[in-house]
Amino acid sequence: VASITLIILSVAIIPDTLSRLLISSYKYGERDKSYLKKISIVTATLNIFLNLLIIPVFGIIGAACASLVTYSIRLLFIIYNIYSTNDKELIQIKSLNELILNLKKIT
After folding, report:
1. This prediction's pTM
2. Exposure pattern of 26-44 as b/e (b: 16+ CB <10 Å)?
């Protein structure tokens, strides 16, 4: 059970990291952040709902699956927001060093 949970959470880290990277790389500082608040509220509520629904049946594996689903949906919302703004300055990562700095900000 623990190994399956660890595998699921290892996969869940991918959309979580990507969404955090997009948020930190994209110019959200110059934009209205209300959409990020809405995304956080929706995904937190979804995570709680999925945990209440899935944990009684599947236990800790269900909690890991709920996290994977929630992180993936958050990433999709953020990508949708970026593409729907018609702002062509999508992500401004100019070098590998900047990418590494953004990843360090996440952790």
Report:
1. 0.75
2. bebeeeeeebbeebeeebe
